């Protein structure tokens, strides 16, 4: 298990920043969590257009941090499938909260119109639904 021994400090915010502190890592987490993308090629198709070298590096880092794990696809032995570990699934409430914050404060947010209402009405049910989708 990775801990903050290799970080600049033992501050919990610093630990998060050293794990996710760049513009691409949380977008990969988003795609895996909410958009059902599980393959290298799927991540490359995202609208933000991540470059191949950065994608490879961020997937490797997420694996090193035990957020995701990869396995060989059953139907194609040359394709890798990425999935969340339990540690990665613990990000669900955080990702939903970040999405809700953005939906509240960005008038151009592409979050579905019903998202914020549904999230505020039953946060725990939404967390459970996302978790079920990932299992």
Description:
This protein is mainly alpha-helical and 135 residues long. It has eight helices and two strands, in the order ααααββαααα. A two-stranded antiparallel ribbon has the order 1-2. Strand 1 (68-72) and strand 2 (80-84) form a beta hairpin. It is globular. The protein starts with 11 loop residues before the first helix and ends with a helix. The mean pLDDT is 91.
Can you lay out the helices and strands and say which pair or pack?
Elements: H1 12-20, H2 25-34, H3 40-44, H4 52-64, E1 68-72, E2 80-84, H5 86-89, H6 92-105, H7 113-121, H8 123-134
Antiparallel strand pairs: 1-2
Helix pairs in contact: 7-8
C-alpha termini separation: 22 Å
Q: How are the strands of the biggest sheet laid out side by side?
A: 1-2
Output the radius of gyration.
16 Å
Helix content: 55-70%
Total helical elements: 8
């Amino acid at each position: 298990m990775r801990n903050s021994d290799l970080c600049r400090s033992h501050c919990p915010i610093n630990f998060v920043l050293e794990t996710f502190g760049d513009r691409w890592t949380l977008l990969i987490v988003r795609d895996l969590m909410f958009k059902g993308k599980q393959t290298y090629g799927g991540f490359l198709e995202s609208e933000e257009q991540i470059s191949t070298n950065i994608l490879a590096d961020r997937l490797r880092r997420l694996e090193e941090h035990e957020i995701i794990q990869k396995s060989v696809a059953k139907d194609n032995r040359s394709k890798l499938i990425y999935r969340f570990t339990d540690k990665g699934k613990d990000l669900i409430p955080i990702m939903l909260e970040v999405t809700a914050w953005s939906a509240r404060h960005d008038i151009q947010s592409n979050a579905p119109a019903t998202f914020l209402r549904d999230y505020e009405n039953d946060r725990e049910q939404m967390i459970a639904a996302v978790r079920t989708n990932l299992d």
